[in-house]
UniProtKB/TrEMBL annotation:
Pfam families cross-referenced by the UniProt entry: Serpin
Cross-referenced SMART domains: SERPIN
UniProt-recorded name of the protein: Serpin domain-containing protein
Coiled coil: none
Domain Serpin: 57-356
SUPFAM superfamilies: Serpins
GO MF terms held by the record: serine-type endopeptidase inhibitor activity
Source organism of the structure: Oryctolagus cuniculus
Amino acid sequence: MPPPVSWSLLALATLCCLVPRALAKGSLQQDSAESDADHQAHLTCHNLANIITDLAFAMYTEPSYWSNTSNILFSPLSITAALAMLSLGAWGDTRSLIQETLKFNPKEAPEALIHGCFQQMIHRILQTGHKTQLLTGSSLFMDKGLRPVATFLEGIKHWYHSKVTTVHFQDTKAARKHINGYVEKETKRKIRDVVQGLDSATRLVLVNYIFFHGKWIDEVQAMHPVQESFHVQEKRAMRVPMVNHLGTFYLHRDESLSSWVLVLHGVGGDTAFFLLPDPKKMGELERRLTRQHFEEILRHTGTRSASVFLPRFSISGTHDLRPILGKLGITNVFSDKADFSRITRAPVKLSKVRSPH
């Protein structure tokens, strides 16, 4: 992920042109201070991007939580953004656990700055979505009987573009229908039935979703897919629509992963990494893969002529993240010890954390 661009550079450039000559000397000192703040913001956002990536690999490399016979799909940004939103409403040990898992250190970077980095990342995705089919969003569904803390509502709306809706959770069937209908509408019917069942004790539902549809091969070529064999297992293949393109690509041989890596830049600035391990090296690839590998790949990948075959595919799924979050250290949010008193004064705890994509 490229380092985020500072959002205050344009404002500084505009203000410097309006400073009277008599204030020029003082303005230089002020600009220097603002530059330091801008540098801290840039560094914080860059570090946060690395933290999100590292957490993604920490989650992915927990084999006991994923099926070894099906595809894995999850969005580390969606998951960490949802946890960061919860941290706005958490207090005491609950807040500390979430911050420690996300490696937030208020002594090094103010909390508002960290949430501002999430705001910038989400804004960038929303801008990219105009060029590609990329939809993301979050919504908080709150029982009508709860009295939310105003600062929490203001925070999730400001930093995370989150919408808040009141629901009568006593009528579980109607509440489930309302939540699923909302997400289906927001994702243009791409994500359905995000909530399968609700307990009558439910008082809050936080939904964070993402949908992506990208084009990685020349659109003209993609219009004419050919049925080819795609190996889903060592001795099992299936016929799928395959797009073939002969051209120059960013290819890299990573001996430490025993894999070939294809880097494709799609419409809107999206980047995809396709890793093809040597025979019987998939397990080794999954165990060794880290953020540093991707950084090395981007630094050393050169262009080569190649004939690339890519299947047209669609992956969707909803994962229960509770065991994974527990492994990462977030445990008491699911117990009666959970303290979300900055969301509502009523005692609430997490019961489920599900990731729909």
